[in-house]
Amino acid sequence: MVKFAHLADCHVGGWREPVLRELNHQAFVQAIDNCISERVDFVIIAGDLFHTAFPAVESLALVTRKLKLLKDNNIPVYAIPGSHDFSPSGACMLDVLEEAGLLTHVCRGSLVDGELRLSFVTDPRTGVKLTGLIGKKGALDKEYYALLDRESLERESGYKIFVFHCAIAELKPKELQDIEAMPASLLPAGFSYYAGGHVHVADNKSLDSRQNIVFPGPTFPNNFAELEKLKQGSFCI
User: Which residues participate in catalysis according to the annotation?
Assistant: First the structure.
């Protein structure tokens, strides 16, 4: 049996108000501590780990410390950047954390005959195979899905997880109808689990051959409207 954690939209360092920023930090700390106490096999972060591409030193230090704690407990972290993680130049703090050996970027691939062919990262303990696509501001990541070689991904056998950071048109809550979204048909079919981010709502739905499309919600509300509506943060194990 595989047991993993799925976090998204942590937006560490996202609040200007000191008290709320500290609560945001504490929520991330608690989520990671729970992952360790629950002895998960691995952790997925489906985008927007940080609120900006260049987080404050205190936020970066906090995240680095907790990722190091996961590593010390032999719990790998698999991640993609979300729309907040990138700078206009394309720089991303996740690249630095990967270089330090604290996480693995699962969006890997190349253009082959005009198609985007992704490769899988295999978790060594469980054999679970992970891949995914990054999220970009203004739904610019749609172009990647348009080029995606879904057939090669669907042929792969085994327990597969697709990590993504965008809204799905068929699953958008009524209050988020103005948010950019893409049709579920652009996701490769036949995966065991779809680890979503970007939509700050906890949800788990299935659409035909795409079972377990999961949005875990933010680990802490990211604005006052979310504080009123959500009351708390969330993630999945």
Answer: 84
Is pLDDT of 76 > 80?
A: yes
* Residue 191, pLDDT score: 97
Q: Give the gyration radius of the chain's Cα atoms.
A: 17
CA 22/CA 124 separation, integer angstroms: 35
pTM of the predicted protein model: 0.94
Q: Residue 63 and residue 68: Cα distance in Å, rounded?
A: 8
**Residue type for position 232:** Q
Pairing mode, if any, of strands 210-216 and 193-195?
A: parallel
Provide the pLDDT confidence category of residue 141 given band limits of 50, 70 and 90.
low
Q: Are strands 160-163 and 167-168 parallel, antiparallel or unpaired?
A: unpaired
Q: How confident is the model at residue 89 (pLDDT cuts 50, 70, 90)?
A: low
